[in-house]
């Protein structure tokens, strides 16, 4: 199964990167750090076709298993990860893009989160799981990495 880890964090070498590196070393997965790219917020007018989102989305579609990894930011994923998920709506809005969106169907997804808490917050997990399931993906695993409080 061809796997990619799609991760985001304000600290490129922080706890999320550490957890991702360990998973990648064990699984042989590829990785993509979303914060290295420009991903604008979703707009109903689809004004942001000049950023990196569509190219990244097409690249990710080449994988069978997508691991979404993010630290917990106020009970949610990072802003860049949220923008990435929101931008998928463009493929639902434009009927000519539906065939591309349908390529997500049947793919596996996993969620890797990390924080100083023992578990990821349910609203964060629900957003990721329900969105991916709506798109026809199947959950493979959900892991939460507990890191000690840094302050």
Q: Can you offer a commentary on this structure?
A:
This protein has a single domain, classed as Flavodoxin domain (Rossmann fold). It contains six helices and five strands, in the order βαβαβαααβαβ. The mean pLDDT is 95. Helices cover 34% and strands 22% of the residues. A five-stranded parallel beta sheet has the order 2-1-3-4-5, sandwiched between helices. With 151 residues, it is of the alpha/beta class.
As a percent range, the share of strand residues is 15-25%
Unreliable runs: none
Order of helices and strands: EHEHEHHHEHE
The CATH H-level homologous superfamily: Flavodoxin domain
* Number of DSSP helical runs: 6
Give the structural class.
alpha/beta
Strand elements, count = 5
End-to-end separation in angstroms reads: 40 Å
**Molecular shape:** globular
Helix content estimate: 25-40%
Find the CATH topology: Rossmann fold
According to CATH, what is the class?
Alpha Beta
User: Strand order of the main beta sheet, please?
Assistant: 2-1-3-4-5
Q: Topology of this protein?
A:
Elements: E1 3-7, H1 15-27, E2 30-33, H2 53-60, E3 65-71, H3 79-87, H4 89-93, H5 98-101, E4 108-115, H6 122-134, E5 138-146
Parallel strand pairs: 1-2, 1-3, 3-4, 4-5
Relevant terms:
151 residues, Rossmann fold, 6 helices, Flavodoxin family protein, FMN_Rdtase-like_dom
Summarize the structure.
With 151 residues, the protein is an alpha/beta fold. It has six helices and five strands, in the order βαβαβαααβαβ. The termini are far apart.
């Amino acid at each position: 199964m061809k796997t990619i880890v799609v991760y985001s964090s304000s600290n490129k070498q922080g706890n999320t990167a550490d957890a991702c590196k360990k998973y990648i070393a064990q699984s042989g997965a590829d990785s993509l750090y979303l914060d290295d790219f420009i991903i604008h917020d979703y707009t109903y007018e689809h004004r942001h076709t000049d950023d990196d989102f569509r190219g990244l989305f097409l690249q990710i579609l080449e994988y069978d298993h997508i691991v979404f990894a993010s630290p917990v930011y106020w009970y949610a994923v990072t802003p860049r990860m949220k923008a990435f998920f929101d931008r998928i709506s463009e493929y639902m809005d434009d009927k000519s893009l539906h065939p591309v969106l349908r390529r997500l169907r049947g793919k596996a997804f996993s969620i890797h989160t990390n924080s100083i808490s023992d578990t990821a917050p349910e609203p964060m997990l629900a957003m990721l799981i329900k969105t991916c399931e709506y798109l026809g993906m199947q959950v493979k695993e959900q892991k939460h990495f507990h890191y000690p409080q840094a302050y």
